[in-house]
Amino acid sequence: VAGTIAACNQNKSSDKSAATVTAGTGSIVYVNQDTLLSKYDYFKDMSKRLEDKGKSAQNDVGSRQQALQREAAEYQKSANTLSADQRATTEQRLQREGQEFQQYQQNAAAQFQNEQGEEQKKLYEKVAAFMKDYAKEKGYKMILTFQKGNTTMWYGDPGLDVTSDVIKRLNDAYAKDKK
């Protein structure tokens, strides 16, 4: 995208350079994604919800694991006093419970990943819909995103950065939705 923009700018007359395109008059602007995510209240709330769910799932898995470990430790203490049949039955039960625990742990992790994916999808759709309306309202033809470490955009003139306005409007809209 950046290469195309640069090529287009080279084809225009020499008195129109990329630097003369500003957020007020141009049709291309950008949003700093890192700043957007760190200051967007919906993202903060979403992250907190996911963090809480993750901790809850970890606590649940951890308590089940501890119970299983206690049960195995109790068996080891009393194994010498049990008959061979009782030992075999108990070992089979503990092995089955261990396998069930592993399956539960995998299912819990998969469920959390699915919820995380759904939340990320909602976030993307929410921001994309906002950006579409924002671009239409402001008369922008394109809104690029800039993210540290993402080489699709190496530099953007600070005059083209509409991040703070986007954050303010997104947070205002989210505050209304929250009520």
Relevant terms:
179 residues; two-stranded parallel sheet; 2 strands
What does this 3D model show about the protein?
This protein has 179 residues and is mainly alpha-helical. Helix content is 70%, strand content 6%. The chain has a two-stranded parallel sheet. Helix 2 packs parallel to helix 5 and helix 3 (41-78) packs antiparallel against helix 4.
Number of strands: 2
- Report the sheet with the most strands, covering strand number, pairing sense and barrel closure: 2 strands, parallel
* CA-based shape: rod-shaped
Distance between the termini: 39 Å
Question: Beta-strand level of the residues, as a percent range?
Answer: 5-15%
Mean pLDDT: 85
Low-pLDDT residue intervals, each spanning 5 or more residues? 1-23
Give the strand order, joined by hyphens, for the main sheet.
Answer: 1-2
Determine the structural class based on helices, strands and strand pairing: mainly alpha
In N-to-C order, the SSE pattern is HEHHHEH
Radius of gyration over alpha carbons? 28 Å
Tally the helices.
5
Proportion in helices? over 70%
